[in-house]
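ok so for the tutorial part 2 we go from a plain amino acid sequence to predicted C-alpha cells. step 1 is just haveing the sequence, like this:
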Amino acid sequence: MASSIRIPKAELTGIYGAMVKRMARKMFGNVPEPVEVVWHNRKVLNFSFSLARRLQKWDQCDENLKSFAHMAVASLVGCSFCLDLGYFQAHNEGLDLTKAREVPRWRESDVFTPLDRDVMEYAEAMTQTPPTVTDELSARLLEALGPAALVELTMFTALANFMTRSNTAFGVESQQFSAACGLEPLAMRSTT
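step 2 — the prediction. this is what the C-alpha cells look like for a chain of 192 residues:
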C-alpha cells in the first residue's frame, strides 16, 4: 500500500536509534513508520514507548476484549496501520484471530458474544465526536466486567483513540505486518 506520510520519516541515528531499529525488527520484522515520524521529537517518542510499556502491565480486562476495542476504534477512525498492527499483535499474543479479523464488520459477523459486541459498541461510542456512550451500555459493561476492568477498558480505548488519530493525522498507513506473518487479510468494514 502506498504511503502518504505527511511528516517525513527521520533516520534513526546513534546508539539509541540502532537499539530502536534492532528491537523493532525483532518485534515486528520492520521499523513501524510512526516510530520514524515521531523520531523527530524524542520526548514524544519516549513518552509513547513508556506509555506502551505501562499498558502492557494492565491486567484487569481480558486481552481479547481490549484488542477488539482497539481494532474497533482503528476501523472507525480509518487507521489501517493500527488495524493491521492490531491483527499482527493478536496473532503474536495468541488471541482469537477468527474474531480479530472480523472486528471491522462486527455488527454483521456472527462470531462475537454479546459482551464482545458491547465492548466494540462502547469503543465506537467513545470514539464518536461528541462521545455517545449511554448509561445502559455502561451499566451492562459494569455488570459483566466489574469496575476495575471497565476503568481499564475505558482508558485503553481512550489511548487507542490517541494512537489511531495520531497515526491517521501523520498519514501513516498499513505496513502489511499481518501479511508478513502469513495471516489472511482483515475483513473489510461494511459500508452500511
